[in-house]
DNA sequence: ACTACGTCCTGCTTGC
DNA sequence: TGCAAGCAGGACGTAG
C-alpha cells in the first residue's frame, strides 16, 4: 500500500520518537513479521533489546533504524503496514504484529495483510543495510541520477509501467503514482520502454518526481483506513489524483472518461484519449 | 540473462 | 439476505 510519500510521511512522524532513544521492550505478536529474520522473533527481540537508535532513514519504500550496535532494523510496510505511536500499548488490536517500547513511548507495527516485515541486517557500502542494497535511489533523493534512469527506462522492451514499478531501476513508485505519472506524461502504460524517446523518458521521470513531491506535501494518499501517519492521521493527496480510482470520471485535461483496465492481477487507470496505446 | 506470473495474507466490496 | 468471488496501495521466487 504505502508508496514513497506515505513511507516518508511515516519516517518524518516517527523520527522524533526514536532518534536517541533506547529499545526497552520488544513484543513480537505474529511470526510473519519476523519471517525474514534468520533466527526469527527470538533473534529479533534479543538483538534489538538495549540498542540505542541513532537515526531513521528511508530509500524508496524501505525504512531503517540505525542502531548503536552497528546493525540496522529494516522495515517494509508491504501493502497494509502502519507504524503508530502510543502512550500505552493498546489491548485487543488484532492487527498489531509487534510492539516496541522506546523510552516511555510504545510503537506499534500494525499490518492487516501481513506482507510487511522487519529484520536486523548489517550496514554495507553507502550506508545501506543488506536488504536495501539492490534498491535504486528514489526520485526525491539527491543521489537520483535522471540520465542513468533514462538510459534504464529506454534499454528494455518491458512495458513502461513495469519498469516504473521496478524498484531496482527507480524506487518508491507503486501502482498509484505510476498511473499518475504516466497520465501526466500522456504515455500508455503498455508502451515498451525502448520505444520512448530520451526526451519522453526524461519527462516521465520529472512527472514521477513531481507527483511524489506533491503527494508528500499532502501527507500521502489515504483511500481508506489502511494508510495513516504515526498519529493516525490520514493523507489528503487522493483529492488531487487525476486518474487513480477515478474510473468513469471526466479526465481533467480532455473531458473524456477515465478507464480502468487489468494489469497483472491489479488495475491500471488511464485516460484512453490522452494516453494512446502505441502502434503495433 | 531477461521477463512474466503466481504467491504470500486479511478484510471489505460487489454481484449473483 | 447470504454467500462466494473479486479486489486492494508490494515484492519475491520460480518457471519459461
Q: Topology of this structure?
A:
Elements: H1 4-18, E1 23-28, H2 40-48, E2 53-59, E3 62-67, E4 71-76, E5 81-86, E6 96-102, E7 105-111, E8 117-122, H3 146-153, H4 160-165, H5 175-185, H6 198-217, E9 259-263, E10 266-270
Antiparallel strand pairs: 1-6, 2-3, 3-4, 4-8, 5-7, 6-7, 9-10
Helix pairs in contact: 1-6, 3-6, 5-6
The chain binds a DNA duplex (16 and 16 nucleotides) through residues 1-3, 6, 32, 35, 61, 76-80, 95, 111-116, 156-158, 162, 165, 167, 174-177, 221, 223-224, 226-227, 244, 264-267.
Enumerate the strands of the largest sheet in spatial order, edge to edge or round the barrel: 1-6-7-5
Poorly predicted runs of 5 or more residues: none
- End-to-end separation in angstroms reads 33 Å
Major β-sheet profile: 4 strands, antiparallel
Number of helices: 6
Helical proportion, percent range: 10-25%
Radius of gyration: 20 Å
Class of secondary structure makeup: alpha+beta
Order of helices and strands: HEHEEEEEEEHHHHEE
Please state the overall shape, judged from the principal axes of the Cα atoms: globular
Number of strands: 10
Average pLDDT:
95
Give the amount of beta strand, in percent: 15-25%
Amino acid at each position: 500500500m504505502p508508496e514513497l510519500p506515505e513511507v516518508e510521511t511515516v519516517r518524518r512522524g516517527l523520527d522524533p520518537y526514536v532518534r536517541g532513544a533506547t529499545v526497552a521492550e520488544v513484543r513480537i505478536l505474529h511470526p510473519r513479521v519476523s519471517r525474514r529474520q534468520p533466527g526469527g522473533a527470538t533473534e529479533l527481540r534479543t538483538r534489538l533489546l538495549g540498542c540505542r537508535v541513532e537515526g531513521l532513514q528511508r530509500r524508496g519504500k524501505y525504512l531503517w533504524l540505525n542502531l548503536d550496535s552497528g546493525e540496522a532494523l529494516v522495515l517494509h510496510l508491504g501493502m497494509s503496514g502502519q507504524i503508530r505511536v502510543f502512550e500505552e500499548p493498546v489491548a485487543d488490536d488484532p492487527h498489531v504484529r509487534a510492539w516496541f517500547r522506546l523510552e516511555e513511548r510504545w510503537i506499534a507495527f500494525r499490518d492487516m495483510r501481513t506482507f510487511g516485515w522487519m529484520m536486523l541486517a548489517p550496514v554495507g557500502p553507502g550506508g545501506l543495510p543488506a536488504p536495501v542494497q539492490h534498491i535504486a535511489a528514489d526520485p526525491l533523493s539527491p543521489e537520483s541520477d535522471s540520465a542513468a534512469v533514462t538510459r534504464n527506462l529506454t534499454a528494455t522492451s518491458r512495458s513502461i509501467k513495469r519498469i516504473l514499478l521496478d524498484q531496482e531501476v527507480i524506487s518508491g513508485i507503486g501502482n498509484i503514482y505510476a498511473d499518475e505519472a504516466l497520465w501526466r506524461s500522456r504515455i500508455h502504460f503498455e508502451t515498451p520502454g525502448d520505444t520512448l524517446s530520451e526526451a519522453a523518458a526524461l519527462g516521465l521521470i520529472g512527472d514521477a518526481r513531481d507527483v511524489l513531491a506533491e503527494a508528500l506535501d499532502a501527507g500521502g494518499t489515504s483511500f481508506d483506513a489502511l494508510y495513516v501517519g504515526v498519529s493516525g492521521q490520514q493523507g489528503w493527496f487522493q483529492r488531487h489524483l487525476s486518474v487513480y480510482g477515478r474510473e468513469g470520471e471526466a479526465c481533467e485535461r480532455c473531458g473524456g472518461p477515465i478507464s480502468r483496465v487489468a494489469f497483472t492481477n491489479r488495475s491500471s487507470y488511464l485516460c484512453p484519449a490522452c494516453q494512446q496505446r502505441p502502434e503495433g
